[in-house]
Amino acid sequence: MRIPAKGMDRQLVLERLEGFRADDVDWRAGRTWGYVYDPGREAEEVGKQAYLLYLSENALDPTVFPSISRMENEIVAMAAAHVGGDEQVVGSFTTGGTESIILAVKTARDAFRKRKPDITAPQMVLPATAHAAFYKAAHYLCVEPVTVPVDPGTFRADVAQIRQAVTPSTILLVGSAPSYAHGVVDPIREIGALALEHDLLFHVDACMGGLLLPYFKRLGEPVPDFDFTVPGVTSMSMDLHKYGYCPKGASLVLYRNKELRRHQIFACSRWTGYTVVNPTIGSTKPGGPVAAAWAVIHVIGDDGYLELARQKLECMKRLVEGIERIEDLRLLGRPEMSLLCVASETANVFHVIDEMKVRGWYIQPQLSFDSSPPNIHISINASNVRWVDDFLKDLAECVTASKGVPPSPIVAMATQAFGSIEPDKLTDDVLGSMLRMAGARGTRLPERMSDINEVLDALSPAMREAIVTGFINELFRQRPSEE
Ligand SMILES: *Cc1c(COP(=O)(O)O)cnc(C)c1O
Predict the structure, then answer these.
(1) Does any ligand 1 atom lie closer than 6 A to the CB of residue 379?
(2) Element housing 253 (H / E)
(3) Rounded distance, CA 165 to CA 199, Å?
(4) Residue 235 phi/psi, 5° resolution?
(5) How far is Cα 305 from Cα 328, in angstroms, rounded to an integer?
(6) What does the pLDDT average to over 164-179?
(7) For the whole model, what pTM was predicted?
């Protein structure tokens, strides 16, 4: 494919873009439980307009565009107050939870390089439920992740396990509020005490809960302490593009004080160009997400967020009740916010997900890991609330339909075949032929994903990673242009 020889008609270009969406999930319908956090058309519209107002501004240099740093400072101040921070708390606006987490880990690493230069191979302790972004951070930053099991009944971090994993090389402890997979809040107070006892840094991943948990508390829910009021908590990640309902590319990393945040900032004056100083990973930095977040927060407001939270809380309670009434399903952990994790001993959950897809629902498969069996993840957002009864009715029917489905012969065969290769020996040819066998056409996956999910579930994490890496490496490449 080449750059079109002649500039195309603007209308035609936009029509083509619209057309590309035909196969995307129809999130506005409200039947997608995840991926898009939809506050309705009004907030969407405001976010869009604000984004466009600051489409071309560049937050690279806050002295040239003070407008964007002003908005950023105001957003951080509102967020800090929301999660029990005092005036000492500082933060940065980032592109997402992953960047917030990478920066928190980098800050911890560099703080310890100063504090304890004798630590040459730093470690962080991760409960098995910690988000994958911590492994990405570990990988990028050469910090060793030390994974510890969580409580197999509650799926909360097990403080005794964390304590045992602390070594003289530990720099950082991690807890989630709540965890993505199970929606439960780790014992932040106890982990904070442990961090203080060993003089460690402690990051609370509140990507999901930072915005929402304080509202659940105001609505009378027994929300455990998770924020800056807890002694020992030194940093926190909080996504605005999840329950803040801001357009994507919006998250915050917060620190207890400015002294700690200093280690996040990168400066370079050893090249022939302008002196660089970047608090976050990017350098040229879009103003759109900051302006859009500022606008959406102001338009929804505290009363709006509280009402959205009330709806999600009610929806969560009805889902819990409904799921508990379906004999073949069981919740993994007691959901403390708006994320549910559902397993079954009698029905194949991957079949259930496929059956639900036929009925227009999108719910997410989660593979087994640590004490967590294969399961279905459900994130509730505002646009799902009105569907709760239909959802439960279909879920019950799909569970019934999935019981006693005979095991697919492909699964046993593919599991065996993949299981006999070393992950780093997996070739594109082997992967391609396996995918064909599972019903894929090239990188177009089959409608029903249960075979593929079952195979993945049976394999080691390293093999799962090799397979998805090979797949994505194939998906993103040149191909004859599709007209
Ligand atoms: C979503 C999420 C992340 C990662 O955030 P991205 O915005 O997807 O990069 C990290 N932790 C938790 C708990 C999350 O829910």
Answers:
(1) no
(2) strand 251-255
(3) 15
(4) -150, 165
(5) 35
(6) 98
(7) 0.97
